Predict the 3D structure of the following.
Amino acid sequence: MPQAKPHAAPTPSPAASTRLVSPARNVLGSLRLPGDKSISHRYGMLAAFAEGTTHLSNFSSGADPHSTLACMEQLGARVEHQEGGAIAITGRAGVFKEPQAALDCGNSGSTMRMLAGLLAAQPFACTLVGDASLSRRPMERIRAPLTAMGARIDLTDGHAPVTVHGTLGGGPLRGLDYQTPIASAQVKTCLLFAGLQASGATEVHESVHTRDHGELALRAFGAELSRGKNSVRIEGGQKLRALDAAVPGDMSSAAFFLCAAALFPEANLVLDGVGMNPTRATLLDVLRMLGVRLNVLQLSEQHGELVGTLQVLGTQNLLGAEISGALSAQLIDELPVLAAIAPYTQKGIRIRDARELRVKESDRIALVAQNLRAMGATVDEFEDGLDVPGGQPLHGAVIDSGGDHRIAMAFAVAALRAHGDTQIHGAESAAISFPEFFDFLDRITER
Ligand code: S3P
């Protein structure tokens, strides 16, 4: 079986590129995935904030977490890229340096929203900017609660650039008891990062238990948090200390290969070192619902995060699924690829309560529908989801990724079972989360 090792440095190509994806006969082999994007952002930010030098292996190779690292360097942290992709980050013991220029978050909503929380309690003002896609994404969701904590945040028409005034232009932060109106782990983490530096306690209540990497990372760096059934609480004024950690493989990247394997009855794919945090593993339940056979071959815990080896075996009958409510929020990053394989299922996939997909790196509901239609499928589009009937053979087509990494990768997977070749326009966007994606896809597909 081919073995693929993660690469170290991110080198997203700035030029738009088109990838040709030909149909495959099977999916076979084993892969070890690069580090989880969500965990890499959080470890990168907290390492820069903590006292001491943090050593991280398997840090995400995606461009987004490297946007975070570049911002942390501008804020005075020392970031050293070492042999084999390891990274050493020497933190600022709670006090960042005032940056000399705006902090460029690139395409990364996680960087902009979570970093705003860390910066709201710092003694200087700074501005966070992003690319055209990020500059369209809603930022009021962090401005409102941070303002309630005493921060002063200026947005531009609800979007980036975001200016965080810090304690000089704003004031010292005070703790907040907050119910998030939108299920968002980025907002929750932003508030916990601000709460860490506030006076008193900050408690965030959420109606859906979103990914808890922020909570686990804060604990790993030495903070104390308490959890209620649907809430998390942090006392302000806690110090963080450096950490040695390996970042688990990214389940949202694994999703593309798990869905690719689901398309072939004879598929047999093993994924090593995958992050299996229950708040990220809902896809496994949906794949089982679809009839896919999954085996967890090994499971361990690292700094509160579950990490495992996963085997996926294909099925003769790919059934169908209904995804709504909390499931949609927990699967938010996996919905594009699930929708893209839905025509190959027997009963189709129905997605609702996923309005957030419209404000991701692209309008993912519109682009998924557009690209499925280009491949010959019938799709019904709703404000908050899609109905993709099953039993529809697809043909190769020209796919518009809209510069969105998850759209590019989702349709590369759909292309594996199509009749004829598919061209993915804007394929370079995969590098935002997963630069190795197309190489890995080649390694595990039999043609
Ligand atoms: C993320 C949370 C999700 C997800 C994003 C990463 C995180 O966004 O879509 O890719 O790391 O917290 P929201 O918080 O907007 O739901």
